[in-house]
Amino acid sequence: MKVIITEDYQEMSQVAVQHLLGVMHSQHRKNISITAGSTPKGVYEMLVPLVKNKKYFEHVHFYNFDEIPFKGEEDRYGVTMTNLHNLFFGPAEIDRERIHVLDWTNYETQDERIKADGGLDMVLLGVGSDGHFCGNLPNTTKFGDLTSRVNANATPEMADVLLSEVGGDKEKQPDFYVTMGPKSIMQVKKLVMIANGKKKAGIVKQLVDGTVMENVPATLLTPHPDMTLIVDKEAASLLSY
Amino acid sequence: MKVIITEDYQEMSQVAVQHLLGVMHSQHRKNISITAGSTPKGVYEMLVPLVKNKKYFEHVHFYNFDEIPFKGEEDRYGVTMTNLHNLFFGPAEIDRERIHVLDWTNYETQDERIKADGGLDMVLLGVGSDGHFCGNLPNTTKFGDLTSRVNANATPEMADVLLSEVGGDKEKQPDFYVTMGPKSIMQVKKLVMIANGKKKAGIVKQLVDGTVMENVPATLLTPHPDMTLIVDKEAASLLSY
Amino acid sequence: MKVIITEDYQEMSQVAVQHLLGVMHSQHRKNISITAGSTPKGVYEMLVPLVKNKKYFEHVHFYNFDEIPFKGEEDRYGVTMTNLHNLFFGPAEIDRERIHVLDWTNYETQDERIKADGGLDMVLLGVGSDGHFCGNLPNTTKFGDLTSRVNANATPEMADVLLSEVGGDKEKQPDFYVTMGPKSIMQVKKLVMIANGKKKAGIVKQLVDGTVMENVPATLLTPHPDMTLIVDKEAASLLSY
Amino acid sequence: MKVIITEDYQEMSQVAVQHLLGVMHSQHRKNISITAGSTPKGVYEMLVPLVKNKKYFEHVHFYNFDEIPFKGEEDRYGVTMTNLHNLFFGPAEIDRERIHVLDWTNYETQDERIKADGGLDMVLLGVGSDGHFCGNLPNTTKFGDLTSRVNANATPEMADVLLSEVGGDKEKQPDFYVTMGPKSIMQVKKLVMIANGKKKAGIVKQLVDGTVMENVPATLLTPHPDMTLIVDKEAASLLSY
């Protein structure tokens, strides 16, 4: 794992964008999976004007790697795709045919569809202070899992997590979500993970120390042959360097 | 992980040789780590005449990935390099400067030396019926370990294993061995693992089933983005295919 | 350009097979274009038993790079595909859906179809004593040409060449042929060219000397970043080494 | 060849920087050759603050691809390295040991030194309105040339060109220059060429039309398997798109 320590959130986002654009510039089709959430907001703010209406990125295809349904509204985008649409796909005007949606209707074939598309070339990931990545929260999926469904009773906290994800509206609180598993993500050619802020300092230290433990899911990614962790100074504050 | 099921030991060896030669034919330097032991004997029998005195393989460098000293004879090759010398380096007449020896004098810098050499392009591995690979036996190293020293008291059976490795001669029974760790091997660009015979059928089934467990070390390798498992029919006999 | 000098036709063929198998063993789809004619007979004799009915090569797709119609019989395979079918596709029992035929009906879209398939990963080429490769004979195509139609009046000798190609039967003598052009072939990721026998010694020397001249078409390939020329001793007899 | 048409000089420079950073971000050593001159000024203005004092680019090595001596001052940098130092190496504070100087003392071993370093991963090139790239002016080097010395009498205009290159000072007017040849550049893994302004519209049209002619040297690069041409609207003004 290569660790890149940047000055601040701005530089963290910029370096992540450099990685994305480096993979996107290619003679042939590229498949990229990108993260929703708050950490990558800076990434998408920088990326949108560089990508919008650019014909030279027409060979780039995008994939989401997890999804949470709004209960009773399963006929529309879930939490992740709604967020990705707002942050990136919408403002960057990405053609619908280059967005490959993972949701509750097709998660069981996600891994084989990606394989048929030639595999993922890169994934941009965040990491939780508990060590989760994608929807792989501690004690939900196992290291060996491919794309999976995780039920609301998987852990004591999960029901609350899901309620929070749908904005606290009890009526929309889902019974499950779907996520690409640790094994799915390890098969991606290039992994790029971003983390910023003091509250990530602990998990960043764990990742750099190098122990691999199933109850800290992101530790599995540290031995990947092309893994880059990009952090700001606060997230790096517990590292000795 | 791609699983290749072959008819017999002969074909298993042949397909492994095809993978090796495919990586070795290149315009630029290639770094390959290869396994000692009994499983690869067929591989080296086929490989030696194809490689011996061939100038077109002069850019290929070789690395061993573990070593066991003969106690009291630490100034000569250990068990692994002696075996590799007999099976391959000697008969294939590989130049000494293209053989990069890992032993007890330099194991602490093995990972950084490999990184400085440009990384390993391929490793050929065997697997034990207990799920060990290289010197990563159950309950010796951890998933997150780089090249490590394992002491004779690491597990109850270890002293016996080491005695057996030096041919049962108590005087030469070593107190430790060194091995590239699970994390070291995961960073190799291409992993090829071979297994043959009924006694490997159980571990092969475990690897294909896909669970990743620290006490079955080889399961860590199954999510690697370029992992190939080559088995004969007997080793595949518990698979449903 | 890397030059591999082998002892004899047998070793030349073997080393070419090693290159082919090295590209064919992969986690993902591979696209390979292969040559017909007499030079590669040894290659296909070795390759057929290694490939026939092997499920582990099911992701490999094959392309021919030129074609000559039998006049009046344009509804069946031309000279090249007939030859490739007899030498390789038939005996190796390659599925029809993995054979991508270039002929007179579709040559104008050959380059864009290949691009849509992800590009060619490797091409196995022969070379004529006049420096031709594929159907790029001196003074027919230009260095900058993509897949092209060449008419029988392109050069003074062409009518005779075409008559000979269809076995001397005047009734079947075609008015043209089609071929991937020099520029099409240069865009392939890996080029492997084979040549054997005294009558190839002159062109081999020209290729190694390194001059690039449009009337010796194969000289264009010598600066390609991944070009390997495999020759036997006779074909290498004018080289100083 | 992939053609990227940008709005203006600013976007042309930005897209070239994206290509450079994409190659530079890597787990292993990368070797990059970069162009001097006026076209890339915008590239270096953007690149310097992104690269200066960034430890995460410490594995990137830089190479110049041509050099013109100041006559009588052969013990200091020539025209190209002086220019590169002013534009990039100086302001970006690149360590001296990561700058691999080509000059009159070592040009004969340039190609073999690059090969020993693992090959060039990328070259950033400009193009002249006459079709020259690096020091490969029409009728100086041949397509098949590796790194070469070109004398002042190579063409009628050369003496004037050299005088202009040293700022019009007759005393410093050199008798020759050195340049990586067309064959040297073709062997680079990734080629990126930039061109802007109306006066480049003619050569850009020639490159896109695709004819390959030795007296328009840059046309040789158009069939390279990973060639990208980045132009602004003015340089693209003769293209039909």
From TrEMBL, chains A, B, C, D:
<dbReference type="InterPro" id="IPR004547">
    <property type="entry name" value="Glucosamine6P_isomerase"/>
</dbReference>
<dbReference type="InterPro" id="IPR052960">
    <property type="entry name" value="GlcN6P_deaminase-like"/>
</dbReference>
<dbReference type="GO" id="GO:0005975">
    <property type="term" value="P:carbohydrate metabolic process"/>
</dbReference>
<protein>
    <recommendedName>
        <fullName>Glucosamine/galactosamine-6-phosphate isomerase domain-containing protein</fullName>
    </recommendedName>
</protein>
<keyword id="KW-0119">Carbohydrate metabolism</keyword>
<dbReference type="InterPro" id="IPR037171">
    <property type="entry name" value="NagB/RpiA_transferase-like"/>
</dbReference>
<dbReference type="Pfam" id="PF01182">
    <property type="entry name" value="Glucosamine_iso"/>
</dbReference>
<dbReference type="InterPro" id="IPR006148">
    <property type="entry name" value="Glc/Gal-6P_isomerase"/>
</dbReference>
<dbReference type="GO" id="GO:0006044">
    <property type="term" value="P:N-acetylglucosamine metabolic process"/>
</dbReference>
<feature type="domain" description="Glucosamine/galactosamine-6-phosphate isomerase">
    <location>
        <begin position="12"/>
        <end position="224"/>
    </location>
</feature>
<dbReference type="GO" id="GO:0004342">
    <property type="term" value="F:glucosamine-6-phosphate deaminase activity"/>
</dbReference>
